[in-house]
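[Discussion] Sanity-checking designs against the backbone

I'm trying to build intuition for which residues belong where. Below is a structure token string of 222 positions. I'd appreciate it if someone posts a full sequence so I can compare it with mine line by line.
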């Protein structure tokens, strides 16, 4: 193989392997093959709809609140930086203020730590909420209930709701006006693929011409 295109084509044509098979033939190749298969099933039209809707929120003077738990909290802080710096979009994440987050969790409970923060931020109908989550929140299974409660608060305020999620999309998909679901094609690696491709999608969004206002640094360095 002489170039990256040939390599990607070979990996694309290789069937997704079981864990036992991937140990024998190379886990990295299997993981890349899974990633490519998932990427090819992403709903690109939904990503375009989300980019346009987010731009509408910004042009209407709305703010963007980005919610995530665990690894997705790390994504949220990074995305806040990019939306603010590259897109001139006023954005915030509750997990960036550890003092308030832990005070709310300690005094009021984990389930309301995001919804209370949105209330304190006076969320309104001009604002947007963007969720990063592997499952999207599920009250019945008691998974990411703080995201569920936050989205109920956002919905009650008439805010615009968006999500980049995995599995079946959970509660986020039920209430979002635009929601990108990362297909769960590799049952043993739903979390790493969802979180990894979440970063791909939101980097796509902050680079999208309807959203990006400022150039990134390294593209101008010669």
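Best answer:
Here's mine. Compare freely.
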């Amino acid at each position: 193989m002489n170039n990256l295109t040939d390599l990607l084509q070979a990996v694309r044509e290789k069937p997704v392997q079981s864990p036992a098979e991937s140990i024998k033939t190379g886990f990295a190749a299997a993981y890349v093959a899974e990633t490519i298969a998932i990427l090819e099933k992403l709903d690109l039209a939904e990503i375009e709809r989300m980019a346009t809707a987010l731009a509408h929120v910004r042009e209407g003077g709305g703010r963007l609140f980005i919610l995530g738990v665990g690894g997705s909290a790390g994504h949220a802080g990074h995305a806040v930086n990019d939306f603010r710096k590259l897109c001139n979009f006023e954005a915030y994440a509750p997990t960036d203020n550890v003092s308030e987050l832990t005070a709310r969790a300690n005094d009021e409970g984990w389930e309301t730590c995001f919804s209370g923060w949105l209330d304190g931020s006076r969320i309104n109908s001009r604002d947007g909420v963007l969720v990063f989550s592997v499952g999207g929140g599920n009250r019945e299974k008691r998974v990411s209930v703080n995201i569920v409660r936050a989205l109920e608060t956002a919905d009650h305020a008439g805010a615009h709701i968006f999500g980049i999620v995995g599995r079946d999309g959970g509660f986020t998909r039920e209430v979002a006006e635009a929601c990108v679901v990362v297909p769960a094609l590799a049952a043993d690696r739903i979390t790493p693929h969802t979180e990894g491709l979440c970063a791909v999608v939101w980097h796509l969004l902050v680079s999208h011409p309807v959203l990006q206002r400022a150039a990134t640094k390294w593209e101008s360095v010669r």
